[in-house]
Amino acid sequence: QVQLVESGGGSVQAGGSLKLSCAASGIIAGRMTWFRQAPGLAREGVATIYRTSGITAYSDSVRRRFTMSGEESTNTVLLQMNSLRREDSAIYYCAASVSIMGGGFWADVYDYWGRGTAVSVST
After folding, report:
1. What is the DSSP letter of 22?
2. What pLDDT digit, counting tens, does each position of 24-77 carry?
């Protein structure tokens, strides 16, 4: 049984930092991605990592502020979020796919999703 379990969300003031974690079990994913969704807005892919190459990609909205990394030994991916802004407030979801075909930020290509962890940034 595949499980993705996110942790690390919380409340922080603008300018602060949080580190999210997603622990995967039952799957060796070719690609894992962090999505987020704020109330009333569409789900947005923000960071992705390809397992074999370690290559990462980021959305324009988080580039140079967020860093995604993978810990192969624990089958975990991390999202270090710095310089947080109010607009970063959302539920953050981890997604995994075995295949690396298709766009990294296309939600439809992902086979498995976590339940999400909430991030709230206040000013």
Report:
1. E
2. 999 999 999 999 999 999 999 999 999 999 999 999 999 999 999 999 888 999
Alpha-carbon span 67 to 69, nearest angstrom: 7
The pLDDT score that the predictor gives to residue 50 is 95
Q: Show the CA angle centred on residue 83, arms to residues 32 and 121, nearest 5°.
A: 85
Give the distance, in angstroms, between the CA of residue 114 and the centroid of all CA atoms in the same chain.
10
Other C-beta atoms within 10 Å of 60: how many? 7
Three-class SS of 61-73: CCCCCEEEEEEHH
C-alpha to C-alpha distances, 71 to 18, 26, 94, nearest whole angstrom: 18, 15, 15
Strands 10-13 and 117-122: parallel
Compute CA distances 17 → 66, 67, 106, whole Å: 9, 11, 26
Write out the DSSP string of 69-88. EEEGGGTEEEEEE-S--GGG
State whether residue 107 is helix, strand or coil. helix
